[in-house]
Amino acid sequence: MKIGSEAHKELFCSDFIGSYKKYEPEQLPWPDLDKTDIERLRSIPFWEEALNTEQRAGSKVIAYAKIITDPLLREAIALQGIEEERHARLFQFMIQHYGIEISESSPAELPENIEQAFIDFGYGECLDAFLGFGLFKIARQSGFLPESMFRIFDLLLHEELRHIVFFVNWVAYMQASRGRGARIFRAAHSLLYYGRAAQRLLDTVSHSADSKGKDFSATEASVFLDGFSLEMLLTECLQENARRMSCFDRRLLQPRLLPILAQITLSGLKLLPKRQPSENRLPKAETL
User: Fold this and answer.
1) How far from 261 is each of 12, 54, 160, 200, 234, CA to CA, in Å?
2) Residue 244: per-residue pLDDT
3) Distance (Å, whole) CA 132 – CA 248
4) Would 13 be classed as within a structural domain?
5) What is the total count of domains within the chain?
6) pLDDT digit string (tens) for 22-71?
């Protein structure tokens, strides 16, 4: 299939629209958590940032959809905006339901160049999702929270997966339609925007560590960080990314640069001498 063709557009839009699932966050099977699980949930330092990110995302995506003239693209992107707003409502309900304390934040103003903002957001979502797949699997296997909670988060992760597949196809389609569809241009474009996304992520992590990281105690972290390493994370990210991506039509483009960079980094890490286990490792938390 020719990238940038009408057939390509119809495929990635129809795949996205057709895979939409209707649900309300308030009606999901939220479990009754015991004291230990509630404390762990409340200790996670990024709920406020997750809520703010999804609220900003919904506003940006819906605003961008309003200026699109192509009916099919407008329908698909408007649907993504609905899902981003629903993610914000999901976090909002969870925060209220389990008594998680967050600070009040004022709504962010929309940027003047809304298409630029949509592109920046899309690449950021690709980076967040790739890393999130691995972290989610590690946390899930550790039993950090009950499986019923992970099933709810898995629903959100699958929607993020749909978003990034739609996005990379949309970007390629738009580049081709504007005469910049050559692979070298697409690769340079991806490198530039992934670099911007990585810098924003580092800034966010640094800010979170300064303001809330102290709340995530050693005992809580040790539940799923025992034995954690960059090699483990990249391995899980690559495996989970491949597993989750396998459900899509093979004619659709998928994010390729991040898996390639992760594989190169992982290969380099495997050549380094293995570190000896530290005697000062965090104590492993008791099994629930």
Assistant:
1) 25, 27, 21, 18, 10
2) 96
3) 19
4) yes
5) 1
6) 999 999 999 999 999 999 999 888 899 899 999 999 999 999 999 999 99
Q: Which of 52-56, 103-107, 219-223, 269-273 has the lowest mean pLDDT?
A: 219-223
* Pair 35, 205: CB distance under 8 Å: no
**DSSP per position, 31-85:** PPP-HHHHHHHHH-TTHHHHHHHHHHHHHHHHHHHHT--SHHHHHHHHHHHHHHH
DSSP code at position 182: S
Are the beta carbons of 245 and 164 closer than 8 angstroms? no
Alpha helices in the chain (DSSP H): 6-18, 35-43, 47-66, 71-97, 114-142, 147-177, 183-211, 218-225, 230-245, 257-271
**Which residues span the domain enclosing 38?**
6-271
Q: Give backbone dihedrals phi and psi of 182, rounded to 5 degrees, phi first.
A: -60, 145
Closest CA to 136 of 154, 158, 160, 163: 154
What residue type is 21 in one-letter code?
Answer: K
106: domain CATH number?
Answer: 1.10.620.20
CB 53 within 8 Å of CB 102: no
Whole-structure pTM value: 0.85
Q: Which residues contact 63 (CB under 8 A, 6 or more apart)?
A: 110, 114
In the block, residue with structure tokens 């050559």: 182
d(Cα 223, Cα 282) in Å, to the nearest integer?
A: 9
Residue 95 is assigned to a structural domain of this protein: yes
pLDDT tens, 187-230? Answer: 787 788 788 888 877 776 666 555 544 444 444 445 556 667 88
